[in-house]
Amino acid sequence: MSWRLWAAVAGVVSAAVVLATAEVVAVFVGAESSPLFAVGSLAIDLAPPWVKNLVITLFGTGDKIALLVLLGIVVLALAAVAGLLERRRPPLGIVLLVVVSGIAVLAVTTRAGATALSGIPTVLGMIAGALVLRLLISRLRTWERAVPTSASPAPAVPGRAGGEGDEGSGVAGVYGQSPHPLHPQRPRATPSTPTPLDRRRFLTATAIAAVASVFAGVIARSMNATATAVSAVRDAITLPAAATPAASVPAGAELDVDGITPYVTGNDSFYRIDTALQVPQVNADTWVLKITGMVEQEVEISFAELLALPLEEHLVTLACVSNEVGGDLIGNALWLGYPIRELLARAKPLEGADMVLSTSVDGFTAGSPLDALTDPDRVAMLAVGMNGEPLPVEHGFPVRMVVAGLYGYVSATKWVVQLEVTRFADAQGYWTPRGWSALGPIKTESRIDVPSAGASVAAGTVPVAGVAWAQHTGVAKVEVRIDDGDWQQAQLAETTGPDTWVQWLYPWDADPGSHTISVRATDASGYTQTSDEAPPAPDGATGWDAHSVTVS
User: Fold this and answer.
1) At 545, is the secondary structure helix, strand, or coil?
2) 5-20 burial by CB neighbour count: b if 16+ within 10 A, else e?
3) In which element (H, E) is residue 465 found?
4) Of the candidates 383, 409, 434, which is a domain's last residue?
5) Which helix (H) or strand (E) holds 516?
6) pLDDT digit string (tens) for 356-412?
7) Order of strands, edge to edge, in the sheet holding 365-369?
8) Which domain, by its residues, includes 406?
């Protein structure tokens, strides 16, 4: 019988009680007081930049699932340790449970929108978990004491004397010989009579606590997740027609090549990278944007007021600064919104201001250059629509920022609720103190979509195709090189303007053998992307995308 295993189980069940109790109480206190995602968000905030880069590189848009799995493993391990400690060194197990719960309280109470009551669910969960851990370990000890050990005297065999050498005589019953006269057998306490009742009490209490935690926790989590659900509100919204519609996508923007990235990225396929473990649920009916800071006049605008303004449509490609060379953390969509510069003009920024610190409802911040948001020749909008429908909740519903030519970490704030006009010398966005540059212009890059890396293709004419981008500047040409040969210019598809990517195609007369295909782009300013390889941090990856293929 592994008593340590049962002690670990008791610890895990107690941790489940903590979480379940907190979820149940959060139903009444407020969904934002749930510790489940608050701890994960705190972990994201405290993690060093290289850890975040590694997670995004390894898991891409699945980074949040990976983090939740990792946190789950850590919680299970700590819970098991708490059970082991409580069995061997009480009350250290309860102390560990209290410490971990205290971290959860800190996480909850420091989240954006936290109130004085936000820590109550976790505190009550901690108390319930500690009581359950104490009860389970107490019953486990009772069961353990009731089971005889291998060194305990075995009961005498009926009909036989218990003399020297007999099975019922202490050491002789164990080793088959009489006790040494110089080492007499130590008297041992007679164990209590083994009874199934002791085991049943422990197992029953453990099962009840586990099942009740799962049942109540799942129901409460579901209620908390839907308590502020905005799907119905979103579905009921009819977006107004754009006063300034986007240019039509030319027929030549889509090349007829199997496997090439579509010119317009669907909402379901659009990449998502942000710091929100739980997608914020913001009710459009109560949403308000505030413009504050270094302005002559603070401005507030509601969602209804925003929709009543003359909206504009623009096709804009967004890119994440964490995108590796050849990566897919980039997408092109049709956005509907209102120019930020018009709202800033109402507020009248003061002299000396050079940055706008945008804040999300979940506390994320991004620092954007003021001149980029006020540039009449640059798309910088409060977007309410994406590809002809209200913003998906995971992409910022009801309102997000879209700024052409800047990486998302300094411009594309989702669920935005505040714009503070300030200075780079006085404020920083979320990622800047974590090692990323304050300014984030998107770099000229290109990517091979087909053939894929490691592919085998037949000899003859092979289409080599992909996308290239130089937002707010425009792509002038794309070149392809086979092995160490000369650079050959590829065919460029049409595009709606410099703020979107462009498809390209190079017909390759492929000979049998192993080959390496490389690509590079040159933007409208004459800059050709460098071959120097650099990681995403601190201001975007560089290098040429290259695929090795086999021709047969």
Assistant:
1) strand
2) ebbbbbbbbbbbbbbb
3) strand 460-469
4) 434
5) strand 513-523
6) 999 999 999 999 999 999 999 999 999 999 999 999 999 999 999 999 999 999 999
7) 299-302, 288-293, 416-422, 355-360, 365-369
8) 251-434
